[in-house]
Amino acid sequence: LAVVEVALGDRSYPIHIEAGLLNKAGEIIASIAKKPRVALVAQKKVFDLWGAQVSDSLRRAGLDFFTAIVPDGEKAKTLAWTRRLYGEFAKNSMDRSSLVVALGGGAVGDLAGFAAASWLRGVDFVQIPTTLLAQVDASVGGKVGVNLPAGKNLVGAFWQPKAVLIDPLCLTTLSKRDIKSGLAEVIKYGIILDKDFFNKVKALRTGLLEAQPEALITAIQRSCELKAYVVCSDERESGLRAILNYGHTIGHAVESVAGYGRMRHGEAISIGMVLAARLAVDLKMFHPDQAGEVEETLRAFALPVEVCPNLDVRAMLKAVSVDKKSKAGKVRFILPKTIGVVEMSDKVTPEMVEAVIRESQARAAKR
Ligand SMILES: NC(=O)c1ccc[n+]([C@@H]2O[C@H](COP(=O)([O-])OP(=O)(O)OC[C@H]3O[C@@H](n4cnc5c(N)ncnc54)[C@H](O)[C@@H]3O)[C@@H](O)[C@H]2O)c1
Question: Among the options 74, 237, 293, 354, which is catalytic?
Fold first, then answer.
């Protein structure tokens, strides 16, 4: 069992990582819960696959729980589903001492976490993330929320869980494409903070792509340590936490113009990381060989690295300019200086972004 501590004073919590941990979920949750009243909020698909194991464990631990099933993916990340959860909480007499458990990918973690943050002004919650993306990113750090028609994640809160339970065996039922998408975020941690880890991930490539538990535990544990370090230094994103957005400015633009659901988040971030590396080369702050290494590594994990030629450049530029991380009209980019070190820059002009996107589309068209 590996435990990573997220040190946030009286809101500190452990991230438990262990193969087979779902069987111990009840025991761990029972040791945290003020009262044995628990709402288990799960995605339908995940509940069908892993719900029995979690339910048995909660039952064995003597927890009094009910289950709320929500739709897969972004369909559940709405105010309408938040309201439905409130209805379930009310019907099942969830009081201040009750606890919400989120079982599934990042979408259910964000939804159930938001419902927990706002129900009776906040009740405890525990994350059981079941996608690689959720295990290395979404479940750690306390950002919860839902989407509005006007945009993603526009309503939310900072609400730290009481614990995160990560069982890499859950990933055995995840598609290869979703594993690769999660690995894009793992590679990101290496580029922004830890060159040795970047090299280790490259060395573990086969095991990671085959979802071998040992390789996954190594990657998940270090990713959680790095995310915890960033979150603990800057919980509310007033400084350092922004480095987690490396690859996300152009990545989000590609993802939204392609249409959410068409592309995996990690695939778009992979493209965004490569283009941000090229922008850093253009600004002469990053060596071209290292930018090549970033690109080759992502390619080796069979992740996309170029912008699809049929995506509308104007629409992508608009999406970049309204990126919520922009300040005073300037889009701030997280750019690498060397593998393992990044910095925030406001030197990237819209012309540079346009050029790097067009050049990428031209490269893609040639292949
Ligand atoms: N809060 C944060 O800090 C943060 C960070 C990154 C991403 N996010 C959010 O996370 C969401 C994306 O997360 P995601 O990629 O986990 O998506 P997701 O929750 O939509 O899950 C993807 C799909 O995988 C299925 N699934 C989940 N676990 C499975 C398993 N073990 N086996 C088989 N299928 C499984 C789900 O049912 C779903 O259909 C987005 O909404 C994003 O905004 C939040």
Answer: 237
